[in-house]
Every structure is written in C-alpha cells, then in structure tokens.
Amino acid sequence: MTVATLYIIATPIGNLEDITYRAVRILGEVDLIAAEDTRHSLKLLNHFGISKPLTSYFDHNQQFKGERILNALRRGKTVALISDAGTPCISDPGFQLVRDAVAENIPVVPLPGACAAVAALAASGLPTDNFTFAGFPPSRQGKRRTFLSDKNALQGTLVLYEAPHRLLETLSDIREVLGERQVIVARELTKIYEEFIRGTASEVIAAVSQSIVRGEVVILIAPGKITHHESEPLENVLRRLMDAGTLSIKDIAKQAAIISGVSRSDAYAEALKLKNSED
Length: 279
Ligand code: SAM
Hints:
Blueprint: E1 5-9, H1 21-29, E2 32-35, H2 38-47, E3 54-56, H3 62-74, E4 78-82, H4 95-103, E5 108-111, H5 116-122, E6 131-133, H6 141-149, E7 157-162, H7 167-178, E8 182-187, E9 195-200, H8 201-209, E10 217-221, H9 234-244, H10 249-260, H11 264-278
Parallel strand pairs: 1-4, 1-5, 2-3, 2-4, 6-7
Antiparallel strand pairs: 7-10, 8-9, 8-10
Helix pairs in contact: 3-4, 6-7, 7-8, 9-10, 9-11, 10-11
Bound molecules: S-adenosylmethionine.
C-alpha cells in the first residue's frame, strides 16, 4: 500500500533537459498530478511519456481544488504538484496546499530542480551569501516604489521577478529609489536566447531601451553601500572643545563622546590626560 504523500516537483524553466530523473520517475508513479495549467503540463508529461490523471490547481481555484487534493491525500493517494515552470510555491501556487498538508501531518516531499531566481543568482556575479528573493514587485508605480524603498537597507543581493512589459518602468524605479547600483537582468534562462545584461542601473536601462525585451526576466540588484560617517578622532575633538575654553571637563567629555562615538568614561579619561599634560 502506498503512503499518502504530497510531492512538490520542480519542472524545467525552458530547457527540458533540466528535469531530474527522480522527477520523471515520481511523476510516473503518483496517483494524481496537480498542475497549474493542465494543457501546458500535458506537453511536458507527453514529452517524457508520462500518462497520469491530471487536475488543475491555480491561483483562482486554490481553495476549492486544494480541498479535493487534500481529500485524495486523506484517502491515502500520492499527489504530485507541479507548476508551469520551475519550483511550485515560488511565485507560483502551492503554499496553501503545503501548509494544509503539513497541518494534517501528511508527508510533503520536495523534489528540487529548476528555479529562475536561484539560476539567475548563481550566474549573476553578485553576492550569493546573503540574498532576498522578493517575487514580483507591485504593478502600480506608487506601491512599487514603496516596495523598493522598504528594501533599501537590505545588505544582500535583491532578486525580483518581473514581466517583460514592465521591465523598463521597474528598472527606472530601481534607479530612482535604490540609486545607481549594479543591476543584472537575466533573460530567457536555459533557453536559446539566454542573456545576462549587466551594468549600473542607467547602463542596463540604456541597453534595455534599445529594443523590446521579450521573454522572461529576473532582475538582480547589488546591495547598497553601507556608508559609515568618518568620526573625528577623539583627541582632535577634545582639543577643539578645550581651546574654546567655555566648558567644564565633564561637559567636554560628554560632547566629545557623542561626536567621536566613544564611551563617556573613555572621553573623560582622555580629557583629563590631555588637561594634565597641558598644565
Ligand atoms: N516558480 C517559478 C520558478 O521557480 O522560477 C517562477 C514562476 S513565476 C510565475 C514566473 C517568473 O519567473 C517570470 O515572470 C520570470 O520573472 C521568472 N522566470 C521563469 N522562467 C524564467 C526564465 N527561463 N528566464 C528568466 N526568468 C524566468
């Protein structure tokens, strides 16, 4: 007897060779495949000679279809969830189903594979030790600018998905809100016209403006520079305040500590030392 299991299976984002052996095997073994667009997925399944009952599971039928899929799992069936491309649940339907399955202690097994965000990041040349994937920015400019400005202080690479017809306006907002950072547009990953457009925000905007960008794109933005204001050395500050001759040693130490970013006791000790050496 099979054990009810929900498999979350990544499928290619362009190049069909990017499916895994395990994905093909499990897709051929499960009782039911839940797909975002059944007609689209049928082409993939036919390509690999997989013939299994298919059901749709997309944004607008998630609640009702999720319940039917859960019922199948409750009856001990095995179900594979796939999306049109890449990893389900990553800017694709799946999260609610996984959450509900987890809540009912139904095993959820991921089959890793293609994900546009990770593929783009890996080949971007931008820092990979710390990154934020933020999905699609809002389509309205006001909300998009707020969304970007909320990410201004992030210290890692920012990875976004975007529709090609919004690419230029989003890049302009990136330059406007986040400044002249290094930006990379990763286009048509794993496909014939795969391309990485790299440069400052302005350079990438200029490159993208030259022709209509077609196909799918990931935008990657380098972390902003962390600017540390250079503090004036403590001794200089103390001397300047002492030379003014209007403050007590205690007040001089207090002000110098704030200006130089040192502790008040350190500033006081240093102030006393300076005063004694001058007496
Ligand atoms: N779940 C998918 C994944 O794991 O990458 C993402 C699905 S999301 C609905 C589709 C977006 O992913 C596209 O608008 C684009 O931003 C990005 N994308 C998908 N395939 C891509 C590709 N081959 N090249 C570049 N970006 C791609």
